[in-house]
Amino acid sequence: xxxxxxxxxxxxxxxxxxxxxxxxxxxxxxxxxxxxxxxxxxxxxxxxxxxxxxxxxxxxxxxxxxxxxxxxxxxxxxxxxxxxxxxxxxxxxxxxxxxxxxxxxxxxxxxxxxxxxxxxxxxxxxxxxxxxxxxxxxxxxxxxxxxxxxxxxxxxxxxxxxxxxxxxxxxxxxxxxxxxxxxxxxxxxxxxxxxxxxxxxxxxxxxxxxxxxxxxxxxxxxxxxxxxxxxxxxxxxxxxxxxxxxxxxxxxxxxxxxxxxxxxxxxxxxxxxxxxxxxxxxxxxxxxxxxxxxxxxxxxxxxxxxxxxxxxxxxxxxxxxxxxxxxxxxxxxxxxxxxxxxxxxxxxxxxxxxxxxxxxxxxxxxxxxxxxxxxxxxxxxxxxxxxxxxxxxxxxx
Length: 397
Fold this sequence. Notes:
This protein is of the alpha/beta class. Helix content is 32%, strand content 22%. Helix 3 (152-169) crosses helix 4 (186-202), helix 4 packs parallel to helix 10 and helix 7 runs antiparallel to helix 8.
C-alpha cells in the first residue's frame, strides 16, 4: 500500500522528535470545556482542562486549565501561571485574578454562584496555562503519599516535567514567546523554575522554546527579611502609632522574625502589634501549607542569575499588601544593584494614577498598583491588565 502523502511528509518530523533527548511516552488526558455551571451559554473563549503525569510511573498527576489567547493564539505569548500559597488552587488565578471569568458579586441566596466575563483578562493578549501545583493543590493528586511531594525542589522538578510534556503535546506553541509567571509564594518558585527551564533549553532537555522572562506579583522573595518589613509598612500606612513603632524599633532593633524570648520588651510590643491581624485564606489547602517543606529560603540568587542572562521581568506589588509589603520587594530589587534607566514616576490608566514604576538596566520593571492588596489583579483588574498589556508589548507603563 502506498504511503499517504501527508504521513510521508510528517515522517521526518516524527523521526526528529523520537531522536530528541526530551522525548517521552505521553498519555494525554485533556478535555475542551464549552460550558461551565453558573455561566449562561457557551464559553466565548477556548478553555481546556486536563492532567499530565510526572515522576516515576507518573505517580503525580498535575491538573491544569489552559486558555487560548482571544487575540492571536499562534503569535501571542504563552504564560505558565502558578498561584501562591503554597496550596492555592489555579482556579483562584483563573477566576479571581487574571483569567477570563469572575464570580458575580451579589447577595448569596443559596443557589449556584454565577460566573461572568472578565473584560480585563490577560487572556485577551496571551495564552495562559494555570497549574494546580504542588501536588495536593486543587485537583492535582498523587497515586502514592502526596506528603512526599510537599517541598520546593520536588515542586520544581514536577513543574519542569509538566511543562516539558505539555510542550510536546502542544508543539504549535513552541515558537511563541514564553514567560513564567505567578504571585505570592510563587515568588520562591517562579525564578527557580525559569532558571531550570533556561538551563534545560541550553542542555536540550526541553524543547527549544523562546523563553523571554518572568512576571511576579506581590512576590515572596526572602522568608527572613519579608517579616521585618511588615512593621515599617504598617507604620507608613498609619496602621500603628508612632509610639508603638518607636517602641518596636528600639526594643526589637528591626528584627521581628526570630525574637529573642528573653527580650520581654520586644515580645510585649510585638504582641500588641498583632491584635486583629489574623485571617484565613479560604482558597488554599491549609493542610498542605502547614506540612510543606521550604527548601528555598531566598530566591534572590535566581533573580541575580536570570538578570545576568538578560531575561525581561515585571515585578508588581499592590501597595496595600501587608503580607508581602512592597518595601520588602523594593529592597531586594535595589540589592541587585543595577542602574536605573527610568526613574520613579506615576503610571496612568484613564487619566488616573494607577501606581508608580521604575525600570532598571537588567530589563526589570517594578510597579506598584495603587490601592491593591495581595494578589493585585483581584482588586484592580483594569489597571493590572493595562500594566501587563503595555509591558508584554514592550511599551513603557
